[in-house]
Design brief:
- There is one protein chain.
- The protein is of the alpha+beta class.
- Helices cover 48% and strands 13% of the residues.
Length: 470
């Protein structure tokens, strides 16, 4: 869509002639939530036609279209990255015009554009993974479709599916695992689906989607829009655009049913002994105390995945145990956590950041300090604080504060090396007095990396404030 057409639609897009920055966002969100609740209720009743009608009404509503554009062009951190259309961002007026442009009545005249492929390095390896950047209008349309499609499926998804779902996250997945293994130690199938987003069978996904004709046509067009890698175009006959707004939801839909397959054939009387499959998007583990039962569940899941065009990564998939050593190792890694158990007076579950996650985090800190070797201390603190806060937020509530304190020591050593390189002729005590400030009142020996009467580096042990006594 060209800029002239966007300009022509600006007036139509502005509700009550209000400028974008003073729109009644809370009221618009409430309208969308009410419509989504109606879709969810119709889905629970199994009234498919009502679901289709309500979804269409939602996508046509001004409230949903404005919110979709806001989430893509105003809130998403990737809003300044251009797709094949070259549009990096939208100004306030352009957002209003876009909200009008993505009305379903215009879809027949807006064939999806190919996605732009960029290659992102994988941490600690020479490998790279593909990331898809959609055109701005396709991003906004996908956000709109997600608003309509998500409530239908949220009432269907299985109990232990946690990834990319509203109100659920990593901590919920970890809690499910901890509750299960606290009852008794278990064997664990630690699985990795090889190139899930690139390999999923599009026809199988569309059949499972069972959506309206309008949405099926649009989603099919997105799936088959193709990829631009530099100047080269390639068709997209399999897979999902990893990085697309709608792709995580579509992957969850594709993998819906895996939990039921894992427990298939287990007597309801023995429901408490069923294998437990915990899934976060395309990452999953299966747990059971009986190895033979676990192996049967694995075989069922593998066959089921094959129908979707998916296979497990042979080198990254293994069976282990939470308490008993297996191949010289106890426990398993999942979502950046290491989970294992120890036998004492009672079996104790120990959760810590995985070694791979620690290595990535410290490498990021090292790289940032190298870049900031000559920067003022205030900038160093400003650059490092988000890394520390993000790490604490991810592990807080799961990893004990005592374990988090270890990272304060690791970062302090790196900061001492940073100070030493800046002032190679100065004594360590001078460097400490220059960059560290005492906290805790007179006589305290505790220091923090901080500017005098100014900003200080956040500490990892601050997690204990939220976790309480540990």
């Amino acid at each position: 869509m060209n800029n002239k057409k966007i300009a022509q639609q600006r007036q139509e897009a502005r509700p009550a002639n209000q400028p974008h920055n003073v729109l009644p966002w809370r009221s618009l969100e409430q309208q969308v939530v009410r419509a989504q609740k109606q879709i969810a209720q119709a889905s629970l009743r199994g009234d498919r036609q009502a679901v289709y009608d309500l979804q269409q009404r939602l996508m046509e509503s001004e409230a949903a279209r404005l919110l979709a554009v806001r989430r893509v062009a105003g809130e998403n951190p990737g809003r300044d990255t251009a797709g094949v259309d070259g549009i990096k961002s939208l100004g306030l007026e352009e957002r209003l015009a876009m909200a009008s442009a993505i009305h379903p009545r215009n879809w027949n005249y807006q064939p999806p554009m190919p996605v732009r492929r960029v290659w992102v390095p994988k941490p600690d390896t020479a490998e790279r993974r593909p990331l898809a950047i959609l055109s701005m209008i396709d991003r906004c349309k996908q956000a709109l479709v997600k608003l309509a499609l998500e409530p239908e499926w949220e009432v269907k998804f299985e109990a232990h599916s946690y990834g990319f779902r509203p109100g659920l996250g990593v901590h919920d997945a970890m809690a499910a695992i901890v509750v299960a293994i606290d009852r008794q130690p278990m064997f664990v199938f630690d699985a990795d689906i090889e190139t899930a987003f690139d390999s999923v069978n599009q026809a199988a996904l569309l059949d499972k989607l069972q959506t309206s004709h309008v949405l099926r046509q649009l989603i099919t067009a997105w799936l088959r829009a193709g990829v631009m890698d530099g100047e080269m175009y390639a068709p997209s006959e399999t897979g999902l655009a990893q990085g697309g707004v709608l792709s995580p939801l579509l992957m969850n839909i594709a993998l819906h049913g895996m939990e039921a397959v894992a427990t298939e054939g287990v007597d309801k009387v023995r429901a408490g002994e069923r294998p437990l499959l915990v899934r976060y998007a395309d990452d999953f583990v299966i747990l059971h105390h009986d190895l033979k039962e676990l192996q049967q569940a694995i075989r069922r899941v593998k066959r089921w995945l094959a129908h979707l065009g998916l296979h497990l990564h042979a080198d990254k998939t293994r069976i282990t145990h939470t308490l008993i050593p297996s191949q010289g190792q106890v426990g398993f890694d999942f979502l950046g956590f290491n989970i294992r158990q120890e036998q004492g007076n009672r079996i104790k579950t120990i959760i810590a950041p995985s070694q791979e996650a620690i290595k990535r985090h410290l490498a990021t800190i090292d790289q940032r300090l190298l870049q900031l070797q000559t920067a003022p201390q205030a900038r160093v603190i400003k650059e490092l604080n988000p890394l520390v806060i993000g790490w604490v937020a991810y592990y807080n509530g799961v990893v004990p504060a005592s374990a988090m304190r270890r990272f304060d020591e690791l970062i302090e050593q790196r900061l001492l090396n940073w100070a030493g390189k800046r002032h190679p002729g100065k004594a360590r005590e001078w460097q400490l007095n220059r960059y560290w400030q005492r906290v805790g009142g007179p006589g305290s020996h505790e220091r923090v990396f901080a500017i005098r009467d100014g900003e200080q580096l956040r500490t990892y042990r601050q997690a204990s404030i939220l976790k309480g006594k540990q």
